[in-house]
Write a structure and sequence with these properties.
- By secondary structure, the chain is mainly alpha-helical.
- It has helices at about 5-15, 15-35, 40-50, 60-70, 75-80, 85-95, 100-110, 120-130, 140-150, 150-170, 175-185.
- Helix 1 (about 5-15) runs parallel beside helix 3, helix 2 (about 15-35) runs antiparallel to helix 3 and helix 3 packs across helix 7.
- The chain is globular.
- The N and C termini lie far apart (about 35 Å).
C-alpha cells in the first residue's frame, strides 16, 4: 500500500492551505466511514487523501495536463471544468503517487459525480468529500452527515439530489453521471 506520510507531505506542498485542510478532513471522514461499513481502512485513507490531488492547479493547467497525458475528457467535463480534477486526479494517483489499486483509482475518479453501482469505497469517498467537518453548512448537510453513518445508499441519494438541486437552481450544466447516480439510488 501507499506510504501515506510521504503522500501527505507532497500534497501539503502542492495544495493551497484550505484545500489541504479539506483533504485531511475527507481522509479522516473516509476512515470513519470505512470503519463503520467494515471497508478496507487503508484504501479509504489513501483514496481520501488523494481525491483532490488533481486540483492543485488552474483549470487551464489541468486541461494542458490532460492533453499532455492523453487523458480523454467526457463532454460534461469540458462543459464543467470543475469536474476535470477527478479524472486527472485518478491519473496522477496512479502515475505520480504509484497507486495501482483500481478500487482507489475509481473512487477518486467518481468522487464528484458518483455513478450507478458504486462500490462501497466509491460511496465512502463520494460522501466523505461532501460531509467532511470543514464543509460550509449547506441545506440538508446535517441530515446527509447522519445518514452517511446509518444508511449509506440513502445518503448517496440525498447527496446526489442536493447536488442536482444546487446545479439546477444556479443554472449550471449537470454531468449526466450525477443524474444517473440520483436515479439509481432513489429506487
Amino acid at each position: 500500500m501507499a506510504d501515506l506520510e510521504k503522500i501527505r507531505e507532497k500534497l501539503k506542498n502542492k495544495l493551497k492551505k484550505e484545500r489541504y485542510q479539506h483533504t485531511l478532513g475527507v481522509m479522516y471522514t473516509a476512515a470513519s466511514l470505512a470503519m463503520r461499513y467494515d471497508e478496507n481502512l487503508e484504501e479509504a485513507l489513501t483514496a481520501g487523501l488523494l481525491h483532490d490531488c488533481g486540483k492543485y492547479s488552474s483549470i487551464e493547467k489541468q486541461l494542458r495536463l490532460c492533453r499532455k497525458h492523453e487523458i480523454r475528457l467526457e463532454r460534461a467535463e469540458v462543459e464543467v471544468p470543475a469536474l476535470i480534477h477527478a479524472r486527472l486526479g485518478a491519473y496522477l494517483a496512479e502515475n505520480k503517487y504509484g497507486i495501482d489499486n483500481p478500487r482507489i483509482l475509481d473512487a477518486i475518479r467518481y468522487h464528484t459525480t458518483g455513478r450507478p453501482h458504486m462500490s462501497m469505497l466509491d460511496k465512502i469517498i463520494y460522501l466523505a468529500d461532501y460531509v467532511e467537518p470543514g464543509r460550509k453548512m449547506i441545506p440538508g448537510l446535517p441530515e446527509i452527515r447522519k445518514l452517511s453513518f446509518t444508511d449509506i445508499d440513502q445518503a448517496v441519494c440525498k447527496c446526489a439530489a442536493a447536488t442536482l438541486n444546487y446545479l439546477e437552481k444556479s443554472k449550471r450544466p449537470i454531468d449526466p453521471l450525477t443524474r444517473m447516480t440520483y436515479e439509481y439510488y432513489k429506487d
